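wait is this the right file?? whatever heres the structure
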């Protein structure tokens, strides 16, 4: 019997979690030869999420959970779930039923056909603000131009992965994780499952426009140094232009003598160059910021409570490895 862990990152999802469990179980109960377990990751919720999860765990033996000491973000939640999972396959799924459980049989079918990963892809963005869709489309185009990885329009985190792929994903131990990119970067044989976007029925989205913008910048800087090259390109272009301008001005001065007016030209040059320099420092700063955070080597999450015993592989580990696992800073992969 194959095992499948369903990893569900949850932040303030108390209202809908029981419905989520019931709806998903209805689907998974009908799939023979695969045994499904749930790993709910309570990402420092401020509502009753953890109580709902522990209640589910008390009444269903296939419910496991990890509870964080504070909110560490969805990326950390997904990472923790993968790290604590020991199943043959792992499904990552949102808690708000925006990832339709009815796709699970198709995912299992894909695995049976020999794929390492079967991932869901939205075919439309129904119910989403137009400006957000536009921004998102622009982000995909920009990232694909600037990085070596190819992000697929509409791809979501909802997917099943083989143990081999999960281990590969975990082997990338960067602190600032951009999973959409990581899932592509590791490669493996992948199948896409298109589905119609589902609007959130209970609770509300945790994404603000600002966090999406930050996400986009993080995505590009995590997988590419193209912005740095762009800055070099700017510098080169401006130097050439400046050289010609100086040559022309010099010849003009030699022939016609010095003419005092030049206020607009000077001001424009100062402002233009000032802008470019600020922009370049900003780009450099983004990368330095990433280096700074990575060098701190801080854990991705801190566990406050869990009902998952350490895995056999981990229980053989040295004490520091065990500690590392508990705080999401792994050294043994
Ligand atoms: N989530 C999380 N930590 C956060 C924010 C969100 O674990 O800091 C979870 C959330 O509970 C949900 C999933 O990530 O299960 C997706 O979040 P959301 O529905 O807000 O995002 P959207 O569907 O709007 O992209
Ligand atoms: Mg959602």
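ok assuming it is, sequence goes like this
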């Amino acid at each position: 019997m194959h095992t499948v862990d369903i990893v569900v990152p949850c932040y303030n999802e108390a209202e809908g979690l029981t419905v989520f469990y019931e709806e998903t179980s209805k689907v998974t109960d009908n799939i023979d030869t695969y045994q499904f377990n749930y790993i709910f990751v309570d990402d420092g919720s401020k509502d009753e999420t953890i109580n709902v999860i522990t209640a589910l765990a008390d009444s269903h033996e296939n419910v496991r959970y990890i509870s964080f000491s504070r909110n560490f973000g969805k990326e950390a939640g997904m990472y923790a779930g993968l790290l604590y999972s020991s199943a043959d396959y792992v499904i990552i799924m949102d808690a708000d039923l925006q990832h339709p459980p009815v796709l699970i049989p198709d995912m299992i079918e894909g695995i049976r056909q020999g794929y390492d990963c079967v991932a869901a892809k939205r075919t439309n963005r129904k119910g989403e603000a137009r400006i957000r869709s536009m921004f998102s489309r622009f982000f995909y185009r920009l990232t694909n131009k600037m990085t070596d990885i190819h992000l697929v329009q509409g791809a979501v985190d909802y997917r099943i992965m083989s143990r081999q792929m999960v281990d590969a994903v975990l082997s990338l131990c960067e602190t600032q994780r951009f999973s959409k990119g990581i899932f592509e970067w590791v490669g493996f044989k992948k199948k896409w499952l298109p589905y119609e976007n589902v609007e959130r029925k209970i609770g509300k989205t945790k994404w603000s426009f600002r966090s999406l913008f930050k996400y986009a910048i993080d995505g590009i800087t995590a997988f590419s140094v193209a912005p740095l090259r762009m800055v070099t390109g700017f510098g080169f272009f401006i130097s050439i232009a400046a050289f010609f301008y100086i040559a022309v001005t010099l010849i003009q001065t030699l022939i016609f003598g010095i003419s005092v007016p030049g206020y607009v030209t000077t001001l424009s040059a100062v402002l233009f160059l000032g802008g470019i320099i600020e922009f370049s420092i900003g780009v450099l700063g983004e990368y330095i910021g990433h280096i700074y955070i990575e060098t701190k080597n801080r854990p991705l999450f801190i566990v406050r409570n869990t009902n998952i015993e350490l895995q056999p592989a981990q229980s053989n580990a040295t004490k520091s490895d065990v500690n590392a696992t508990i705080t999401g800073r792994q050294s043994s992969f």
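The pocket of magnesium ion (ligand 2) is lined by residues 94, 96, 98, 200, 205 (CB under 6 Å). so i think its the right one actually
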